[in-house]
Target: Leucyl aminopeptidase family protein
Amino acid sequence: MDQHPLPPGFAPQDADAAPLHLVGHDRFQDWLQAQPALVQAWLSRQRFTAAAGSVALLPGEGGVAGAVVGIGDRLDPCAYAHAPTALPGGDWRPVAAPEPAAARALQLGWGLGAYRFDRYKAGGPAPARLALALDPEVRDVLAACVRVRDMVNTPAQDMGPAELEAEMAAIARAHGAGFASIVGDALLEQGFPAIHAVGRASHRAPRLLRLDWDAGGEGSRPHLVLVGKGVCFDTGGLDVKPADGMRNMKKDMGGAAHAIALAELLMARRLPLRLTLLVPAVDNAIGPDAYRPGEVLATRKGVSVEIDNTDAEGRVVLCDALALAGELGPDLVLDFATLTGAARIALGPDLPALFANDDALAADWLAAGERERDPLWRMPLWRPYLRYLTSHVADIANAGSRMAGAVTAALYLERFVPEGTKWAHLDVYAWNDNHRPGRPAGGEALGLRAAYAMLKARCGG
Model:
């Protein structure tokens, strides 16, 4: 079965590897007292205390005899992510095998720290490699994170609606899933007018992509629908973005990348569920046929939408997909979208904004985020703010006031989710503005590991 390639940070388990000590600052003195006098003097001279994010090479008769890596939270993958680039190239093996949860964090963090996007530019020096048998689940989780990064980092010329379709189709083939796409004017014929309206101005035809998979086996299985915003490039439409706001809009398909990678992870781990993945894939382009402010659009649900702002296009394509999701009668709907700048203003780049119509679902996702060190933050579906989406000519407007922008976007989406259907929406940045260990500048998976852990727990895993 094809899987997304991993970063080059892992060595065979039987590699001739140098010894690596993983030491927290809180345990450093005890560890140090057990070392030879030469090592104690060497580290004392360097004022080394195993502070989080630090590395020191250890001396020996033949030169470097090993290394010590300072770590913080042993269960946080990013506590280890500095090691692949801070250590000299070569193979390294922990002196003492970490307990299982810490070993998984180590392997995941090592992979995240070794990541480079090298499709268009050589990746630089090879990272140090970890010689430790890679846990199969960690391998699949890491591959999902890498897929998100690679997809988001790929420029729009190579990650348009057709390329998103090819990505999903290949994943479907690899896992024996069904796949279908509705392209161009067929969207109008089959009842997806809002997706068509947003994408109609582009020379790259809009489309709705669908993957269906069933784990098989005996008994009933919960039906999960994942929906991802696939705006492959966002000019803002006729309400055109300024240059700095448009600069990184190749990442506006980050929600689709999250949903696609999560679906692949669920299938790879064969969670006992039925899965449907829906991705509306469009360019929000400027052209003679671009949808205009003031237009009233039809939607699949029959709700008329007045366009207040063409740059609030993500919710317009998502509403048709969410309407289809509701028609399928699922047990749970999760959508992922790079939806609002307001969520970033409220929570910054690292905390995705979680909205949910079910308290238990929200609590499960938040708890999984804490366990996995993949945090997110719940925001309110404060329904009195629907007044900000009032239209005098249609059932609802796609935008309005500048107040509570992330909340009103989520409320708009909720309008297209059937009453009684459990639903959560993650407004995610999908990006790192600058480089930190394990979090390189560029595309990023946020809330993805937490979503997988939450779904695994709910499936009894």
The mean pLDDT is 96. The CA atoms of residues 52 and 71 lie 4 Å apart. The chain has 15 helices and 19 strands. The two ends are 22 Å apart (CA to CA).
